[in-house]
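Page 47, continued from p. 46.
Same chain as before, 258 aa.
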Amino acid sequence: MSEAAIDPATFTIVRLASGTCVLWLILLVTQKVKKPGGSWSASVALFAYAAAFSFAYVSVPAGAGALLLFGAVQATMVTYGLLRGERLSTLQWLGLTIAIAGLAALVAPGASAPSLKGACLMLTAGIAWGVYSLLGRGTADPLAATAGNFLRAVPIAACLSLCGVLFDTNLSATGIVCAILSGAIASGLGYTIWYAAVPELTTAQGGSVQLSVPVITALGATLVLGEVITLRLSASSLAILGGIALVISSRERVLRTS
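Result:
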């Protein structure tokens, strides 16, 4: 997304609105659900993620942004577990330490460091997404809950968009199309496929799929956007993804032996 194509506030509401339309269309076709699920607290977290994500990508490269987002999500969920009394093994503590060090190295001052403001916004988006994921744990019908949360988040995003009109609004056909594709395909269809696949995956398999997202994003940014994979990004990626992989794999071994 570029600032010239569409402003972050408009991108946010178009993304959420198009995602809502696709999710509800899928629900009506497959389940005939008429009552929205989810909650207002989850909807606020979803909006916080979507808005911070959109504003962050004005100044953060795609690869670094995906890495920051993923790292913040996992750190939020691990922190929640620790606060609830969950105990980490030595390997998990080692993995968490390595991942946090990788995040710190990525945002440390330097020529190839992402914008501090953008990095903070992306970390905020990751924390919000982690909270959203935690709020959705144990949901009987996650797809219906997601559709309801998207629906509630739209009026909140509309308020942000109206405020944006007072300051700076950039619109173009390309920007609108990108926002619609992001909401309808990446979010709407993406969640539907993910929720269908999750029951068939082990914890390690699901974690491995998630670990591949920042890597795919960085490669896509290189091929499509012409972004350069720097030494800092490469080293940080190895530390963050490798550290989180240690946490996930150790958890899987515990589950198998318990």
